Amino acid sequence: MTETTVDTPRSGPGAKAERARSDKQQAHLHRIERTLAACFLGMIAGGLSIVLGGTPGANMVQPNALLGLVILAAAIVVQRHLFILLRIDTPPLATKDWIYQGFLTFALWFITQTILLTTSAPTIL
């Protein structure tokens, strides 16, 4: 005869520590998801800013450069709705968290737009 063991939930202080560790891991995964969402939205907004902003002129300024800032603002606002779709709990996010999300989106937007502008720029002698 073989013995079978049944997985039963623990009780006592060990169970509390295990639940606390599980909650911390879940919160960490949500922070990673929020960071990735901000980064991807920033890259998408940077690409759209280049495509919709027009071809830069001789002075390296796009005809519709202001449209890029509007796209950036839209990407920052869309994050809240994206978090709802991803089922990330947004009420515990404080003002500093939203500033962090906005900064990450801005940073990736700026980097993407700069790279795309410099690689597609005509050579001026």
Radius of gyration of CA atoms, rounded to a whole number: 23 Å
| Molecular shape | elongated
List low-pLDDT spans: none
- The helix-strand sequence is HHH
**First-residue to last-residue Cα separation:** 87 Å
Structural class designation: mainly alpha
How many H/I helices?
3
Query: Percentage of helical residues?
Result: 55-70%
Largest sheet: none
Q: Using DSSP, what is the number of strands?
A: 0
Summarize model confidence as the mean pLDDT. 82
- Share in β-strands: under 5%
Explain what you see.
The protein has 125 residues and is mostly helical. It has a domain at 37-119. It is built from 3 helices and no strands. The chain has helices spanning 13-53, 65-85, 95-119. Helix 1 packs antiparallel against helix 2, helix 1 runs parallel beside helix 3 (95-119) and helix 2 (65-85) crosses helix 3 (95-119). The longest helix is centred in the first third of the chain and has 41 residues, at 13-53. The chain is elongated, with a radius of gyration of 23 Å. The termini are far apart. The mean pLDDT is 82.
Short description:
By secondary structure, the chain is an all-alpha fold. It is 70% helix and 0% strand.
Question: What would the keywords be for this entry?
Answer:
125 residues, mainly alpha
Annotate the secondary structure layout.
Layout: H1 13-53, H2 65-85, H3 95-119
Helix pairs in contact: 1-2, 1-3, 2-3
